[in-house]
Predict the structure.
Amino acid sequence: MADLTDPPPPTGAVAARPTDVPWYSPDLEAISPAARELLEKYSGIPAEEVLPHVLKIRSLAFAIHPYPCIGSFRFLTLSISTHPLYPTLLTRLHSPTPPTVLDLGCCFGQDIRQLLHDGAPPTSLYGSDLRPAFLELGYTLFRDGDKAGATYVAADVFGEGEADALRGLDGRVDVVWTASFLHLFAWAEQVAVGRRVGRLLRGGKGGVVFGRQVGSVRAGEYPRRTGGGSMYRHDGESFKRMWAQIGRETGTEWRVEVQMEEVGRLGGGGGGRGEGLGKEGARWNDEDTRMLRFEVERIL
């Protein structure tokens, strides 16, 4: 097996990315206690090696794609563990019949690793991301390529037919976690993702989709910061309208709960457990920006 202590080169040719953008933090002085615990206790990384290790991985990942959540270290927030539904999910995962959980848009699989660290059974956990190189870097970040872990699938959520790498999970998933993912897309694309999620969930009532993403008190289409096109930032009402549309188009009905939270609380690059956009996010987002946390349950 390859040595997992040093990062592998990213898969494929990768061009250098400019780092003179507001969402790129060149240094990492501290990380949250939760992230440090995961890297030291789950991954077995010595305390003095944690920060340089994370910096090295972040540099490789930013070269693959300059997502703001990578440039500002927000992947260290482990946001699943701060969601109000997390204790209930852990209880279910520790039961004799644990649910099947999919992290859609999992990046390095950091939230999956938090679940594993908290005792969730690996056979119940799946992670999916568009970029295989992020999944590869996840094994290096957490040094767990030699462990019996979750199943990771490189997949385009918009893929169809043979190009749909998620089709093997259709009708098999009980819970979908998705963080910093839906907000990457315009309204129509988010609706398409919702329809796709509906096919992944088991038939009938009870399937759950929960997560968090960037929102705004002024809901609407905004230009993407990386790449072309637009992304729709929701407020609570627009998010509910979107799931109502998904329900009409799929013959289903969904209960939707949404919380809008102020940004600027401590994120993954600091010393606390907070899970907002962080001080880096507060620097490059406007005053209308909010963190949108949601829980969606199929009721019909």
Observations:
- The CA atoms of residues 110 and 287 lie 29 Å apart.
- The longest strand covers residues 289-298.
- The beta strands are 101-104, 125-129, 151-154, 175-179, 208-216, 220-223, 230-233, 254-262, 289-298.
- The radius of gyration is 18 Å.
